[in-house]
Amino acid sequence: MINKTLGEIAVMCGGNIVHAQDQEKLIHGVTTDSRHIAEGSLFIPLVGERYDGHEFVARGLAEGAGATLWQRDRGIYPLGAVIEVDDTLVALQLLAKSYLKEIGSKVVGITGSNGKTTTKDMVAALLETTYKVHKTEGNFNNHIGLPLTILGMSEDVDIVVLEMGMSGRDEIRILSAIAQPDIAVISNIGESHLLQLGSREGIASAKLEIVSGMKPGGLLIYNGDEPLIPQVLADSTTLKPVDLQTFTFGIDSNNDDYPTGMMFHGKGIIFTSYAHKELSLDLPLLGRHNVLNALAALAVARHFDVSEDNIKEGLSHLQLTGMRIEQIVTAGGLTVLNDAYNASPMSVKAAIDVLQGMKGYRRKIAVLGDMLELGAQENEYHAEIGHYVTTDKVNLLYTFGPLSSYTAEAASENLPRSNVFTFTDKAELIKHLNEQIQPKDIVLVKGSRGMKLEEVVNALIEKY
Fold first, then answer.
1. What is the extent of the structural domain holding 392?
2. Do 119 and 52 share a structural domain?
3. How far is CA 257 from CA 113, 253, 287, 293, 349, in A?
4. Residues 426, 428, 429, 433: what is their CA dihedral angle, to the nearest 10 degrees?
5. pTM (2 d.p.)
6. Which of 86, 56, 49, 94 is nearest to 70 (CA)?
7. Please, is 63 exposed, middle or buried when counting C-beta atoms within 10 Å of its C-beta (0-12, 13-18, 19+)?
8. Domain count, the chain
9. Which of 19, 140, 188, 268 is the most buried (most CB within 10 A)?
10. Which of 96-100, 425-429, 446-450 has the lowest mean pLDDT?
């Protein structure tokens, strides 16, 4: 974590120390949460629509914070070590940018409509075999979380792997300006955030903001199966670094790397690729879409000269953030595929494909919740998923939420109506599902974060 004098921090964040005697005071770490203040840390009070962190500054200083930032328009600053700034959020971001530049760590920025968290975890796992790596944890991938991730780094980190999320335009541009990536990865362009951005072209433009802050000569690794990326990249309005390099991955053989063989087994996929001809890799994840995520991670590892032996080792020790096609086998023999973290049309279809590929189970059951933030065509997108559900993929379908009723209706054209169940009450869904479940069934649970379908997963694990 950052360890600096208050005077150094003031310069780095563009602020002014209120009391000159505090200039040499040592600060260890940064927090924006008054509930998690460590002794000697810097408290940064942020201002939101429904909260103002300045209300907790006095308590934070009393509970051990070494100093605080204070936004000038918030009135009289409290007693204690204080740095005055014009805007505490901007100061947080400037502090992170300055700290990262001073350390000199290489930066890998990762974004995409689907798969960015999995790709981030893969990239970190491969690089950790050779370098000291720091990565985004949890959902710290926005304008607050990314700078906090940077400020949590130790000064001897070789490479930092930063996930960059967004819901609208200019958000990734801000993150890219803070991080100034050496390498940027775009996993894909899907339909998430259509409500805010209006079209897939708008989504592609927003994702490609990641190149705007890249260092000159940086490397952009992107899914070459998506024609919108080179289209937007070629647009004269897209901000790009000087001498930008590119590398593509995907299914199509026109890409710089693509799968040349895939063999599925109960715990994952063994695959080979064009760019790694002599390397047979055992990926401990389900779903062919994860092979594409792995190809992006391999491209990063190759750029940093990670050896083939270390690549194999990194994949074998892969640890993923939870609720992303997490395979759970209960004591009673039920298999649950927990993919309840988020959902979009692209990722739901990929999850259904995973369910289809699972062999040796009595019945395949899908529990699908609403996909949120899809804009004006949300009903059509949900119906599209229903049409994708066929008898060779799913035996029983449960849907949860008002939008998913369109999924159920469309699925009834392919599945027997007696095998399709739709609910708007989660407790009733769980009760009915529990009455249907039998040993050796496999259940996929997938929905947007707001649907909280991990409650279904927990209920199944508890009962079986």
1. 326-463
2. no
3. 20, 8, 18, 12, 23
4. 140
5. 0.83
6. 86
7. middle
8. 3
9. 188
10. 446-450
